[in-house]
Design a protein that fits this description.
Blueprint lengths: L25 H4 L1 H14 L12 H4 L7 H7 L2 H13 L5 H16 L5 E6 L7 E6 L1 E5 L2 E4 L3 H5 E2 L19 E5 L6 E3 L2 E10 L8 H19 L9 E15 H5 L2 H6 L24 H16 L4 E6 L5 E6 L2 E2 H21 L2 E4 L13 E9 L12 H20 L1 H7 L3 H4 L14 E2 L2 H13 L7 H12 L6 H4 L7 E3 L4 E3 L8 H28 L4 H15 L12 H10 L7 H5 L5 H9 L5 H56 L1 H7 L1 H33 L3 H12 L3 H14 L10 H6 L2
Parallel strand pairs: 1-8, 15-16
Antiparallel strand pairs: 1-2, 3-4, 5-6, 6-8, 7-8, 9-11, 9-12, 9-13, 9-14, 10-11, 14-17, 16-17
Bound molecules: adenosine-5'-diphosphate and magnesium ion (MG).
The site of adenosine-5'-diphosphate has 15 residues, from strand 9 and strand 14.
Length: 759
């Protein structure tokens, strides 16, 4: 009698006579596979869910935000003025004002049917967090009023002891506080008033992205205003602007639910590339499918109500990949809006039976997702400091900020690499369709020529009037519109695109705050140093323009090696970058090492953005986050290979064995085996891949056990990267081979072709 003994039943002897195979009942035998097929059926019958909305988008804009117009309406005019001063100049907020604003906010919110409020904050887990409280204050049994005062607005103590804090908060003092950030307006979602806040420890250290970001923005404001004074005395405030572009994948929720890897890690840990991938590029800028349009329309409507100026939507290169981009805003607000939008997208997607994948690389073999951070600096006089101007004077100002940005990138390339490092982004950086892990800056041929000219033509010693005129003429020639010239190189991690820099290496799931803290801090430091050097030259008798030009010349020279105009995806660049002495930090644990650097500590302390203690805490958290991510992926790989793939492979193999045995029974040993040649070959190949997959998974488990014994997060992260993750590709290779071998109906997980091409 034939017994199901799995893979070991390979030897077929001629003596035994087996009964013919029973009628195969797939539905009963393989429940997981049934789930996959049912999910697929579900998807085929989906209809778009259009929302009813008629009217103008402009009528929606900011309706659910307590912005300055609302404040003007709800506050006494004196209070309103004082509040505005707090917002624009960062003045201290008096208790009396806070009470009045809270009361106004409450009235406005109640008029919208709001019952609860929450302090909305950005812990270092990467997501946003909230704790809801009711406006209700009981007065006596059966009697209560709606209460919300200044204290409740300004500060809250969430029970937040389980947010990562890198050891800053001792367990006996596990309190963390949230404190209102008045520069980002409160908003209403559903029946809840959300108040953007910073998140700090009992001892005042930051435990989030917002507080250091606000400090970095203040630092760059101060340094940039000081430099602007060379050109225009009216400049009193400089803001950093951020325009992010968010890429994401959309997957039907039924298929998503049938993939434990997508559910738990946000990426497909397994899956053979489909016959059709993105090679036809027919998805890019193709028409957006109806179901997707309905989803986009709803989340965009929701975003507009919250004052997020989303305008652009399109398909991306990979199948089922899309992008959403708003108009740029002040950096802190833009970042809040990005986080809010990610949240809204996920919520609305569920209503449309979609799931949003914000992971950097959900599917091997097709493009990953990034979040381009378009960044610039803008003055209270309405000038974009990274846009070339109309005359030599404004162009000298442009060159000053432009060249200083390049210098900041040059001097802090490793730090920029570190601030975008994550387990997810590791799959993307350096792969062949994303910016490389080598940080470089692309500026286009025209500006390269201008910088080269400046470098060559400024002579040592005092400049003659002729020299000056000639330089001014050259600088005057910078065309105002250079978009066509500069926008072409898509392979650069940091590209100048005509009137802003675009930091492309940021991961799609990241909090932009991490990148923006670093970028604005290094810019603040660079401008401060620049001002010091120019002032020194001036005090040594050089004219102002001459001092600026000479200083620019020096930093153009010093930062030259960071400029790269070629193909960032090519192997040659890796070699060339190595020759230039640029780092190529390929994984997160290596990239994070830079946080140990004394130079980094000095930078953040001097710019008053992060204290050494805060830096240390952040570093710990980042190492821990990395370990946790890889640990979950590794566990899941073990689980899926064991509980999903092994049974499916054995089941199909048994089916083949039965067939072989049947043929032998029918035709005799020799002829039967000859007739079953293909089947026998598949049986052997299944055994081969199954055994190899399982062996690698076992070795990975041993490595995981060893890594878990390590005490320090940093050591552990390196062990996870080098020893545990090292097995991922091998396990996957064999699993994906099994996917190709095993009968389609028996394969338990939705395949890439279903995930990527059905909607
Ligand atoms: P893509 O990179 O997809 O070609 P664009 O070059 O048009 O798209 O990028 C436009 C993005 O740049 C938008 O999100 C826009 O808001 C942003 N942007 C434009 N000007 C600025 C600026 N001065 N500061 C920051 N972001 C800006
Ligand atoms: Mg872009």
């Amino acid at each position: 009698m034939f017994k199901n003994k799995g893979v070991l039943l390979l030897k077929i002897t001629k003596k035994k006579i087996y009964p013919p195979p029973k009628k195969y009942n797939f539905v009963k035998k393989n429940k997981m596979a049934t789930k996959r097929l049912e999910a697929y059926q579900d998807v085929l019958h989906r209809e778009p869910k259009h929302i009813d909305f008629h009217g103008k988008l402009s009528d929606l804009f900011g309706k659910n935000v307590f912005h300055s117009e609302q404040m003007r309406e709800y506050l006494p005019s004196e209070t309103y003025k004082q509040m505005m001063a707090c917002i624009t100049n960062g003045n201290r907020l008096e208790r009396k004002i806070a009470d009045q604003v809270a009361s106004a906010m409450k009235d406005w919110a109640i008029s919208k049917g709001v019952t609860h409020y929450t302090h909305w904050f950005q812990p270092l887990t990467g997501a946003t967090a909230e704790k809801h409280d009711a406006f209700l204050k009981p007065l006596s049994p059966g009697k209560a009023i709606e209460r919300f005062d200044g204290d409740m607005l300004v500060q809250q103590e969430p029970d937040a002891s389980s947010f990562p804090n890198g050891g800053i908060r001792n367990t006996f003092e596990a309190r963390g506080y949230t404190a209102w950030d008045p520069s980002s307006p409160a908003f209403v979602i559903g029946k809840t008033l959300c108040i953007p806040t910073i998140f700090i420890s009992y001892t005042g250290e930051s435990l989030d992205y917002k507080m250091p970001l606000l400090k970095a923005l203040q630092a760059v404001d101060e340094s940039a205003v000081a430099v602007c004074q060379y050109f225009d005395k009216n400049v009193t405030k400089v803001i950093a602007t951020l325009g992010w572009e968010q890429e994401y994948f959309l997957i039907d929720s039924a298929l998503f639910n049938a993939r434990p890897d997508l559910m738990l890690t946000g990426r497909a840990l397994f899956g053979h590339a489909p016959a059709k991938g993105q090679q036809l590029e027919d998805h890019y800028f193709g028409s957006i499918p109806d179901r997707v349009t309905a989803f986009m329309r709803e989340f965009e409507t929701e975003a507009l109500l919250l004052g997020i100026p989303v305008t652009t939507r399109h398909n991306e290169v990979a199948p089922n990949q899309f992008e959403c981009a708003p108009i740029f805003e002040e950096c802190n607000l833009a970042n809040d809006h990005n986080l809010l939008l990610m949240d809204i997208m996920e919520k609305i997607a569920r209503k449309h039976n979609f799931r949003v994948l914000l992971h950097e690389k959900p599917f091997a073999g097709v493009n990953g997702s990034g979040k381009h951070n378009n960044w610039s600096l803008s003055t209270n006089t309405g000038v974009n400091l990274l846009a070339p101007g109309k005359n030599p004077k404004s162009n000298l100002q442009f060159l000053t900020f432009f060249v200083n940005t390049i210098a900041a990138i040059h001097d802090n390339a490793d730090l920029l690499r570190a601030c975008i490092a994550s387990a997810g982004n590791d799959h993307r950086l350096g792969a062949n369709e994303a910016p490389p892990a080598i940080i470089s800056a692309f500026i286009g041929t025209q500006l390269s020529r201008i910088l080269d000219d400046l470098e060559m033509n400024i002579k040592a010693g005092k400049m003659t009037p002729n020299d000056k005129t000639e330089l001014k003429l050259n600088i005057g020639k910078i065309p105002q519109i250079m978009l066509d010239n500069t926008d072409r190189n898509r392979t650069s991690p940091f590209a100048f695109t005509g009137n802003k820099f675009e930091f492309r290496a940021v991961g799609s799931s990241a909090n932009c705050g991490s990148a923006m803290i670093v970028l604005n801090t290094i810019m603040a430091k660079q401008l401060k140093e620049f001002k010091k050097s120019v002032d020194k030259r001036i005090s040594n008798g050089e004219g102002k323009d001459e001092a600026i030009l000479k200083e620019l010349q020096r930093i153009i020279k010093d930062s030259k090696k960071i400029r790269f105009e070629g193909n960032g995806y090519g192997e040659e660049w890796v070699k060339e970058a190595n020759k230039r002495g640029l780092s190529n930090l390929k994984d997160t644990p290596r990239a994070l090492q830079v946080w140990h650097d004394k130079k980094v500590e000095k930078l953040f302390t001097e710019m008053n953005v992060l204290s050494p203690r805060e830096l240390e805490a952040r570093r710990e958290i980042e190492f821990e986050n990395y370990v946790l991510k890889i640990q979950i992926e590794s566990r899941l790989m073990g689980d899926i290979t064991q509980n999903y793939f092994t049974p499916a492979a054995i089941e199909y193999q048994n089916k083949l064995i039965q067939n072989v045995q049947g043929l032998i029974q029918l035709f005799g040993d020799k002829n039967g085996k000859a007739a079953a040649r293909a089947q026998i070959e598949i049986i052997e190949r299944i055994s081969l891949h199954l055994n190899k997959m399982r062996t690698a998974a076992e070795k990975m488990l041993d490595q995981r056990k060893a890594a878990n014994k390590l005490e320090h997060a940093e050591e552990k992260s390196i062990a996870y990267c080098d020893n545990v993750k090292a097995y991922f590709d091998e396990i996957r290779y064999h699993a994906d081979k099994l996917e190709l071998l095993v009968e389609d109906e028996l394969w338990p997980l939705p395949k890439f072709r279903e995930l990527l091409f059905t909607r």
